[in-house]
Design brief:
single chain, 216 residues, alpha/beta, Rossmann fold, six-stranded parallel sheet, 10 helices, 42% helix, binds adenosine-5'-triphosphate, nicotinate-nucleotide adenylyltransferase activity, Cyt_trans-like
Length: 216
């Protein structure tokens, strides 16, 4: 079987166990050879991250330092302007050649909004979609047309993900991790503990930088 690699995009403001744990479990379940974490360059019309690009990058580096499964890709952060996921994945496919199996990881909440992404249908031409579970979100799409799109691409066969280069959607049975970056930022702002929510070096860095805490 060809080696299956996956890209995992997000704002990571900050990176937390809701990102890392489901993906580590998914990697074991389906045999991912590596997961490339790619922090986004956030478009100007969207709410801006609280941490700078450099800080978001550093927190990812701290989080994955002892986890060989993960590598960091800085390409989006290095760009002056944000790029659409569809374009980034097209570029990645061009770099990797036509035959390698490639995947893009998203949480269940992102699957629900996925059809609103720029040229979303083209994404499955380049990669498979691997979806991790997230508490509080349905597993069915709101619009029938989008549910049809999902049903057309759905597979529960892990071999499909390895034997075909792209085009399948896999709903992984990963455990729920009820944590979000928003919740973490809110808790830190209130001076509440986030000990169990992210790797210790990331939390230490946040404290040392005084991030997400605006003081009284
Ligand atoms: P925010 O609260 O700031 O919106 P977030 O915690 O949702 O942030 P992002 O960086 O926006 O994190 O998410 C990157 C990816 O990780 C998305 O595909 C999202 O669905 C997924 N993800 C984030 N948290 C979880 C979680 N607890 N369980 C499963 N997937 C998650």
């Amino acid at each position: 079987m060809a080696k299956l690699q996956a890209l995992f995009g997000g704002t990571f403001d900050p990176i937390h166990y809701g990102h890392l744990k489901p993906v580590e479990i998914l990697a074991n379940q389906i045999g991912l050879s590596r997961v490339i974490i790619m922090p986004n360059n956030v478009p100007p019309h969207r709410p801006q991250p609280e941490a700078t690009s450099e800080q978001r990058k550093l927190m990812v580096e701290l989080a994955i330092a002892d986890k060989p499964l993960f590598v960091l890709d800085e390409r989006e952060l290095r760009r002056d302007t944000p790029s659409f996921t569809a374009d980034t994945l097209q570029e990645w496919r061009a770099e990797q050649g036509a035959d390698k199996p490639l995947a893009f990881i998203i949480g269940q909440d992102s699957l629900l909004t996925f059809p609103s992404w720029h040229r979303y249908e083209t994404i499955l031409e380049h990669v498979h979609l691997l979806v991790t579970r997230r508490p509080g979100y349905p597993l069915t799409m709101q619009q029938e047309e989008h549910q049809d799109w999902l049903d057309r691409h759905l597979t529960s066969n892990i071999e499909d993900l390895h034997n075909q280069p792209a085009g399948k959607i896999f709903l992984a049975e990963t455990p729920w991790f009820d944590v979000s970056a928003t919740l973490i930022r809110e808790r830190l702002e209130r001076g509440e503990s986030c000990d169990e929510m992210m790797p210790e070096p990331v939390l230490n860095y946040i404290m040392q930088q005084g991030l997400y805490h605006h003081g009284a």
